Structure formats: C-alpha cells, structure tokens
Amino acid sequence: TVTIELYRVPAGAEGTNPYRTTTVKADDTYEFTGLPTHNSAGEEYVYSVKEVVPAGYKSTQDGFNFANVANTMEIPVTKTWLMNGPIKPPDVTFNLVRSVNGTVVQPNPYRTHTLISGQTSFSFIGLPTHDNQGNPYTYEVEEVEIKGYDSEKGENNDFTNTSRVAALTIQKIVTGTSLTVGEFQFEIIFNDDPATLETFTLAHGQTKVYDELPYGMRYAVTEIQPEHHTIVYDGQETGTMQGEDITTVITNEYHGTGEFNVDIGLNPTKILTGRALADDEFGFELRMDDVVLQTVYNTLDGNIPFAPLAYTEADIDKSFTYTINEIIPAGADKEGGMTYDTMVLTFTVDVTDLGGGKLSAVLAAQPADTVFNNVYEADGTVDIETTVNPTKSLTGRALADGEFTFELRQGGTMLQRVRNDAQGNVPFAPLVYTEADIGQTYAYTIVEIPGTEENMTYTDMALNFTVSVEDAGDGELDLTTVVPANVIFYNVYEAPDEPVPPVVPVPNFDLGVVTSNVADCLE
Predict the structure, then answer these.
(1) What is the maximum span of the chain, computed from C-alpha positions, in angstroms?
(2) What is the phi/psi pair of residue 110, to 5°?
(3) Is-contact 457 448, C-beta < 8 A?
(4) 80, exposed or middle or buried, with CB in 10 Å at 0-12, 13-18, 19+?
(5) What distance in Å separates the CA atoms of residue 143 and residue 165, rounded to the nearest whole number?
(6) How is residue 518 annotated by DSSP?
(7) pLDDT tens readout for residues 82-132
C-alpha cells in the first residue's frame, strides 16, 4: 500500500501540511469527498495530491493518477579459469541469495544461472532493491562447488577457478602365495595418446606414483598378463583425474597346483599271511577329519591304490592330516579264519609353494608302519583209515591183532608206524593240514615192514596216494585225496606138512628074527 496526501490552499498559496491522507493498494482508486470549495473568507480552495513514495520505488504522477515502478539493480558476475590440463572448463552454476537485515529470505536461492563452458560473464538483472515494507535487500552471489577445482571469489563477483592437480598411485598386490617374488610388467597411457605410453615393473607391495596429474587427464593402466596368475582390477585402473588423489590396486591371484602321490610317497601295503592275497579282497578308506575321501581295494600284489591327493594355491603353507584304515566287516560278514588288522595309519602332508605354479606336497614324517597285516588260518584233516582205507589180509590162517607192522612215509621220511588190528584195519592217525599247505600236493606211501615168520609170504606192495590242499574259505581247507584201486596188503601163510612117525622095532618071539613093521603086524 501507498499513502496519498491531499493538500488544499487558497488560490495562489502553497500548503505544507496535508489536509487529508489515505492509503491505497496497488491498482486501487480512491476519492476524497465532501471537500469545501471556499474558506470562510470566500477564497476558493485549490486542491492537490501527493504520493508518499515507498522506499525502493520510483513514482510518476499524471494529474491525480500515480504509477509506481520498483527500483532495480544489476549484479555482474565474471569467471576466470586457470586450467592445468588439456581440457575445456566445465559448466558452472551460480546462486543468488538475498537477505533482509542479515536474514535470508525465500526463495533461496532467489535466482540461479549457469555459465556454459566457454562463457566468462553474465549479470543478474532486474533485481528489486527493497521488499514491500521498504526494507533494502542485500544480495550475495555464490558459486556451486565444482569437483576438482579451487574457487576464489574476488571483488565485484569475479570468480577465479583453478583446476587441481592430484597424484595417481598404482599398487601391486599378490595373493595366494607367500612366495611373492618376481616383478610384473605394466603399461600406462595418458589421454589415449600413444606417444605417452610408458612401461614399468612392480613387485608385490610396491607402488608407482604419478604426481601432479592435471584435472581432466585421462589415464589407463594395464598389466601384462603373467603366467599362473589371474589379474583382478579394482575399477580404478582407468579413469579421468578429478583433482583428487587416486589409488588403484591391481591384484594378482596366484594359481598353483600340486599333488601327493599316496602310492609312492607313503606306499600303504596289504600283506596276507596264510594264503595267497586276492585282487580287490580288502577295502581301505582314506579319511580327513573323519570324512571319507576315498575308498579303494587292494591289488593282487598288495598295493593299496589311492588316487593322488590334489592341492591348490589355497593350501599353500598348510598341513593336512589324514588317516587310512582297513574296512573290517561286521559280525557274520567277517571271513572265518581271518584276523583283520585294526591299525589306523596316520600321516601328515605339508604343502608349500615352489613358484611357477607348482606346489610341493611332502610327508611331514614317515610313519613307522605302513603295512596292513591280516592273518588267515585254516585247517583240515585226512582220515587215512576212511579215505585211503589201507587193509591187511592174511591167507592161510587167522589174522592176529598187532601181527604186522606198517609205515606211512613221505619221501624218505617215516611219518607213522602202526600195526594192524584183528579185523585187518591199519589204523594210521589222520593227516593234519593248515593254511601253510594251501596250494600244495603231498605224496605218501604206505608199506608193510616184512617180518621173519617162517612159512609167511610178505607183500611187497607200496600203497601210493596223494593229498592236494586248497582253501575252501572261512578257515576251512578243501582236501582232495587220490587213492589207487588196490589198498589191501596181502600176506600168505602156508602151513608145514605133518611129520612122518619114526619106525619102532617090535620083538619077535619066533626062533628066528623077522623084520617087520606095524603094517605087517596089522595084516
């Protein structure tokens, strides 16, 4: 609102004090009514109006009409770029903030303006100098911060921006091995310009620093692919300098492999005593932390053929402890006559890096015993009396108990000597065999020992028979006896003739002597 003052004076005079006042809003009209035309002396009044011009406005009067125009101001802004690199300056935005009596008023910012790259100046124009209450405005120009630039505000809103310089640090890290020897080759190029290509080498833990690279400079770092490594970039290996230090870490993940040959390095072995070992006869488990890694069975020669244990870079400088045990059947599944080895073979493998992608895997210490010993026991007998059935036969008289002597022989060795019984049996004790005899065939001979009895014809027969021994399993033997058709020892007794009685002389009672014999007398 504005104040309108009404003045009246007699014609030819000037008034100094308003006769009446009123306030009018913008675009409103007002009429002063009931105004006397003359004073008491009959002098005619002359009326005039004046506006009390509000602060910050200019007023123009056309008769009784007033037009108010706000006072405005202009604030120029200039921009200076001090570039340290081969790029054009970025766009930059300025905010205009206004305040009354030190208090920022809304909207904030009051105005904004963006200088396009390459523009160096502009002005905020048409800025009112006062608010509606006539309070003067204070204006402040602020630059929106530009990353990578230092800004300095001078007099008359002259802003100078200087591009920052920063360092690029390239760091080399090698993981997966403690044997971090050797250097790795790198290339760096700036602003895609081949003329700037540079090569350098870094070892594990080393860095390469490029100081004072200007804002906006592009760079690209590449590592030449090494053997046995995977290159892992962190995303900072290429980019544009933004006025802040950059560190890019390029990691090489080492890859190595190695194996421990259980068969050669440890040589677990199966030995079976008592009979021949069969292929795939006994099972074995290789465990780590009670987890079964492999299950295998012995070969015919007693080898326990576990596959090699494989290792990678994740195992470098670690030790791994394993156990090998024989799988012992439970209960009724156990083989008869078999004593199983309950040994648990424990061994430790140390893994180290040899470099060049190769790992060493060796025994920490050689176990004292690497042989799993099983013992097989089996037995069986051949009852000679029932199987061979050697028999004594005597012709010419009755056979007497214990009358004739017989020997069981093996080669030149006499094993047993027995006599017949009254029924003609030749009662040799049974032949006993064990697992030690498996696969063997034994030859035996039974002969009669000639006696000295007169009128007795002794047999000279040799009863030859064989016994073959094989394993029947479960601790039993399979005994095969081959016996000849004739197993009877025949002796013949021939009784002697009756003796002739001697001649007895008989007396003759005749005068003469007559020679006679009993037969003659009987006649």
Answers:
(1) 265
(2) -70, -45
(3) no
(4) middle
(5) 21
(6) H
(7) 887 667 888 999 999 999 999 999 999 999 999 999 899 999 999 999 988
